[in-house]
Amino acid sequence: MSEQPTYKEILPYKTSWFKRILRYIWLFLLYSNLSVIIFRFIPVPLTPLMIWRLPDQIFNKERVVRLYKDWEPIQNISIHMQNAIISSEDQKFFNHHGFDFEAIEKALKSNKKGKRIKGGSTISQQTAKNLFLIPVRNYVRKAFEAYFTVLIEFYWSKERILEVYLNIIEFGDGIYGVQAASDYYFDIPASQLSNSHAAQLASIVPNPLVYDLKNPNRKINKKTQWIKRNMKYIDQERKKQNN
Question: Where are the alpha helices (DSSP H) in 91-135?
Answer without folding.
Answer: 101-112, 123-132
